[in-house]
Structures are given as structure tokens and as C-alpha cells.
């Protein structure tokens, strides 16, 4: 995996931002509500063919760019800024890393890199129907259900964690073998669903994946933190632009000290969230022993602070921010959802305390 410099990551950020702004519709309720219900084939084809985002973390030998979590976090920020409703986080980052690091997923990596295969992770058991795996001849069958599955309606395959004989296994299941039950959530731009398995045939990926599944949980927290940072950054940008142009009492509202303070608070949120997320992403790439701690720090912070930035945007916008037509509510909805995805702030503070106490 090549090591990129800060200058190269800035170039990556700029290139992805420019590309997404050129191929994705302008941010509005009209263009984003319901956009995550199905795959936008034209946009996904361009994202795959022109800039190669689905292959970002895929090895070069399989047609990918062979980059790491650090670079993926940069791209996740940018996809969040435009409320990208396609499966980059779920498939191109988390599911791809799961398949790549399982040790037996090489046959799927080239399809993931090209964007022709979309996969998603299923980690959280339905407490009333935990998933079980049964060996049938040379195959496996899954029964049970998983909760809180991202982009389930877009996926062609599901990477499923299962407790098996004192170990944790990862198994791959085709989408036509499962039942998908979407939730009615507050995020109107991304589908989250319950996925049920009824004697679903599956392929096992490697042996005991207990450590990998734990790592995937941490990586999910890092990825969610990166998206939260991108949302806060977009909220800040929109707030500053509005404060510079909205005139009240004969002067731009950005000249009033109270509004200046709110914008400054948003900048503090963005920069601190970006720093915490970058540290966690760097741990994932270079210091895996530190990942549990740095991921908990990043997610505990971003889960509380980044939704606040989207709320401050609505406050600065005033009555405009409360309208359906303005996209501010979509930023808030995505931020509130991500704040509890892969653990909320309280979960991660508790985890951090346990990790530090055990040292």
C-alpha cells in the first residue's frame, strides 16, 4: 500500500470534490430524497470508470488503487458533503476491506473495484433472531436476521458475521437469497434495512475472523466519523455563504458578533473532527494496536459535535432553514443517523474508558 503525503491527499480531496460536483445533481430535497432507494446506474458507472472510487482500497493487482483508510476517509468526507446516495461507504470501503482482509476473497475484488459488484456488511444481529450457520454437505446455510444494514437495497452480496463454534465467521450471501425489510428512518437519502436469512446458501470467507470483525466495527466508526466531518464542513460552508449575502438592518448578518461566533464554533467542530478522524484512519493503516482507542475518540467526538454543526446551520439560516425545499434538514437527518451508527457517543466513551482502564 503506497503512502500518500498531505499534499497528495489535498489533491485527492480537490479532485473528488470537483468530480462529484460535476456529475452529481445540485444539493436539494428534490434531488436527494429517496435517492438511496436504488442504484443510480449512470452516476455509479462514471464514479467507477472515470475516477475509480469503488477500487480505492482494492490492491492494484486486482484493478484497484491500493490506497488505505486514510485516503478513504478523505473521500468519505467529500461524498458526505454532497449527500452521495450511492454505496461508497458500505461497499467500496467496509465490505471491500472485509473481503480483502478475510484472506479468501480475491475472486471478488476485481468486480468490487470495477463497481460491477456491490456488497454490504451485516454485523448486528437481530436480538430476537440471531443469525446461525449450518454446514450442509460442502456448503453453508444461514438462518436469522441482521439489523441496521446500510444500502441493503443496492447490494448484490452481503458479508455476514456469524458466531460459529466459539469463533466468528464471515460468510458471503447473494442478494437473491435474502429478504430485505427497509426501516422508515429519519435519513431520507440512504436506505437502512433489516435483512432476513431463511436457509440462505453462503460461502465462508476464511477461518476464524474474530479479530477482523472487531476491526470492522472500529473501521465503521472511523468511516462514520469521516462522513460526519464532511457534513459539518458542508454545513459550515453553507452557513458562511449565507451570512455573507443575507442583509438585515442594512448590513450582512455575518457582520454581527453573534453570527460570527456561531460560524467560528462550526469551524472548530470541523477542524477538530477532521483531526480526530485522520488520527483514527492513520491508526487503521499504520498502528492497528491503537485503532480501538483512536476510533472511539473520533466517534465519541464527531457523534456529538457534527450534528450540532448542522443545527447551527439551520439557526443561522433562520426561517429558510426550516423549509422542506432547503437541504439543511437533509444534512441534519444524515448527521443524526450517523451519530448512532456503529455506536453513539455514550457507547464510545464507555468503550474508551474500558480500554484505557485495561492498560
From TrEMBL:
Signal peptide: none annotated. Its cofactor is FAD. Residues 7-104 form the Acyl-CoA dehydrogenase/oxidase N-terminal domain. Gene3D superfamilies: Acyl-CoA dehydrogenase/oxidase, N-terminal domain, Butyryl-CoA Dehydrogenase, subunit A, domain 2, Butyryl-CoA Dehydrogenase, subunit A, domain 3. InterPro entries: Acyl-CoA_Oxase/DH_mid-dom_sf, AcylCo_DH-like_C, AcylCo_DH/oxidase_C, AcylCoA_DH/ox_N, AcylCoA_DH/ox_N_sf, AcylCoA_DH/oxidase_NM_dom_sf. Its EC number is 1.3.99.-. Residues 222-354 form the Acyl-CoA dehydrogenase/oxidase C-terminal domain. It comes from the Bacteria. The keyword Flavoprotein applies. One of its GO terms (molecular function) is flavin adenine dinucleotide binding. Keywords: FAD, Flavoprotein, Oxidoreductase. The keyword Oxidoreductase applies. Belongs to the acyl-CoA dehydrogenase family. PANTHER family: ACYL-COA DEHYDROGENASE, ACYL-COA DEHYDROGENASE FADE28. This is Acyl-CoA dehydrogenase FadE34. It comes from Gordonia insulae.
Amino acid at each position: 500500500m503506497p503512502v500518500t503525503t498531505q499534499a497528495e491527499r489535498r489533491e485527492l480531496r480537490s479532485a473528488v470534490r470537483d468530480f462529484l460536483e460535476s456529475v452529481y445533481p445540485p444539493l436539494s430535497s428534490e434531488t436527494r430524497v429517496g435517492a438511496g432507494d436504488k442504484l443510480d446506474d449512470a452516476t455509479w458507472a462514471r464514479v467507477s470508470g472515470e475516477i475509480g472510487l469503488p477500487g480505492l482500497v482494492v490492491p492494484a493487482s486486482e484493478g484497484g488503487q491500493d490506497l488505505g483508510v486514510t485516503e478513504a476517509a478523505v473521500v468519505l468526507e467529500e461524498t458526505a458533503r454532497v449527500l452521495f446516495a450511492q454505496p461508497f461507504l458500505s461497499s467500496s470501503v467496509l465490505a471491500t476491506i472485509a473481503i480483502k482482509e478475510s484472506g479468501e476473497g480475491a475472486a471478488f475484488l476485481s468486480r468490487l473495484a470495477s463497481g460491477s459488484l456491490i456488497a454490504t456488511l451485516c454485523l448486528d444481529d437481530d436480538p430476537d433472531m440471531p443469525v446461525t450457520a449450518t454446514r450442509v454437505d460442502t456448503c453453508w446455510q444461514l438462518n436469522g436476521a441482521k439489523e441496521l444494514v446500510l444500502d441493503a437495497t443496492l447490494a448484490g452480496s452481503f458479508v455476514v458475521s456469524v458466531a460459529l463454534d466459539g469463533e466468528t465467521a464471515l460468510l458471503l450471501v447473494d442478494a437473491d437469497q435474502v429478504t430485505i425489510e427497509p426501516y422508515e428512518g429519519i435519513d431520507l437519502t440512504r436506505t437502512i434495512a433489516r435483512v432476513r436469512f431463511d436457509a440462505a446458501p453462503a460461502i465462508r470467507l476464511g477461518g476464524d475472523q474474530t479479530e477482523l470483525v472487531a476491526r470492522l466495527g472500529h473501521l465503521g466508526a472511523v468511516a462514520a466519523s469521516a462522513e460526519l466531518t464532511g457534513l459539518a464542513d458542508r454545513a459550515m460552508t453553507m452557513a458562511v455563504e449565507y451570512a455573507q449575502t443575507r442583509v438585515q438592518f442594512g448590513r450582512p448578518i455575518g457582520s454581527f458578533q453573534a453570527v460570527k461566533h456561531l460560524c467560528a464554533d462550526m469551524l472548530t467542530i470541523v477542524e477538530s473532527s477532521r483531526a480526530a478522524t485522520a488520527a483514527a484512519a492513520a491508526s487503521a493503516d499504520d498502528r492497528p494496536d491503537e485503532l480501538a482507542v483512536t476510533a472511539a475518540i473520533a466517534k465519541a467526538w464527531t457523534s456529538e459535535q457534527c450534528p450540532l454543526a448542522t443545527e447551527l446551520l439551520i439557526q443561522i439560516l433562520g426561517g429558510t432553514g426550516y423549509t422542506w425545499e432547503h437541504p439543511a434538514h437533509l444534512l441534519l437527518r444524515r448527521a443524526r443517523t450517523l451519530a448512532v451508527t456503529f455506536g453513539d457517543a455514550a457507547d464510545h466513551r464507555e468503550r474508551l474508558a474500558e480500554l484505557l482502564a485495561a492498560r
